[in-house]
Amino acid sequence: MTDAFDLSEASDEFLAAPARLTIDLTAVANNWRDMAKRSGKARAAAVVKADAYGLGIEDVGRTLYHAGARDFFVAVPAEGATLRAYAPEARIFVLSGIWPGAEHFFFDYDLVPVLASEEQLAFWMSAVAEHGDHPCALHVDTGFNRLGLSIEEALALADDVSRPASFSPVLVLSHLACADDPSSPMNRQQLESFRRVSAAFEGIDSSLSASAGIFLGPEYHFDLTRPGIAIYGGEAVNGVPNPMRPTIKAEARILQIREAKAGESVSYGASLKLARDSRLAIASAGYADGYQRSVSGSGVGLRQTGIAGAHGFIAGHKVPVAGRVTMDLTIFDVTDVPANAIAAGDYIELFGPNMPLDDVARAAGTIGYELLTSVGLRYERHYNETE
Ligand SMILES: *Cc1c(COP(=O)(O)O)cnc(C)c1O
């Protein structure tokens, strides 16, 4: 079997890049199939908003379509228009819904708006009266207080015999607030509320769970599940081992290795004082590449928390960030790596199969989702298909 992050097919640009991403599309497909299996009798959609969580909507959309996904969720209409070319027969739901001026996207690219308010409903009904029948979905709020009709509004709509025949919802959905914490009582409260809504819209599909909700078990699956982060290998549920395969490796080139003496300081603010003679590797990625400034350790006085900074991975060693991350460059303390094991020109893994995305995110005081969607434009990319 080929190594998932194998670079034998990579371009010269990629092999010389200051910073590079290797994306394993086979792992993306396998993670989606895994979530489809975990969804039991329900169909699994694929959430590909925000450029497929930073991995690239074109390649990820095409891969998941070939893997069998036929329902996709994006956040905004333009994402749906891009995806359409890669998912010709799929149903593409737009989570932000619709507003005046955006309707052409829905009709031109055959997108399904997820309507979330009385205004959006009224606007959609007038749009379909003009353009003719077109599917839509309904978002009902069951406790998140983000988008969605209230439960009362949804139940009234279900009973409304006067609604036009051209108004034909194909899906009713809601979103869980605390599914990453299986012990939260919120999960069951939202489930009970959603059951009432789902029953009122008998005959159309219901959807409640994103990645974390799928792990809560069959009661939470309804007809359609909406995994996102799990497809990309990120952690959905807190405090349990992550069963998903990593899909992305971010690496930065070492530009220079330097020796520094005990007592000297490192990076902006000079707040890291070296306790020993040290060897420092200067890596070609920084916060402009989404390697967030907050991954700098608490030793730099950046934050008041006791969280240590992140680590990179090089030559079989985990090495800590030294001092503040800067815009384009990050300094790692490689004193404990044998001097002959690394050289300028080598790559250090910022996150990937050897340095879990969520460990780096935790060091930054955030979640894998934010790290992924922040990767930025400077990375050279290589997509692997090992299937
Ligand atoms: C982003 C999103 C999802 C996917 O969530 P994950 O936690 O990434 O699986 C599903 N449903 C809605 C409404 C979302 O906004």
UniProtKB/TrEMBL annotation:
Pfam families xrefs: Ala_racemase_C, Ala_racemase_N
MF annotations from Gene Ontology: alanine racemase activity; pyridoxal phosphate binding
Positions of the catalytic residues: K49, Y268
GO biological process: D-alanine biosynthetic process
Domain Alanine racemase C-terminal stretches: 247-384
Gene Ontology CC: one annotated term: cytosol
CDD domains (alphabetical): PLPDE_III_AR
Protein keywords: Isomerase, Pyridoxal phosphate
Keyword 4Fe-4S on entry: no
Cofactor field: pyridoxal 5'-phosphate
Binding site residues for substrate: R146, M327
EC number: 5.1.1.1
Gene3D superfamilies listed in its UniProt record: Alanine racemase, Lyase, Ornithine Decarboxylase, Chain A, domain 1
Pathway: Amino-acid biosynthesis; D-alanine biosynthesis; D-alanine from L-alanine: step 1/1
Catalytic activity annotation: L-alanine = D-alanine
Function summary: Catalyzes the interconversion of L-alanine and D-alanine. May also act on other amino acids.
NCBIfam families with a match to the protein in the record: alr
Family, as annotated: Belongs to the alanine racemase family.
PANTHER family per record: ALANINE RACEMASE, ALANINE RACEMASE, CATABOLIC-RELATED
Name of the molecule in the record: Alanine racemase
Species assigned in the record: Rhizobium daejeonense
The encoding gene: alr
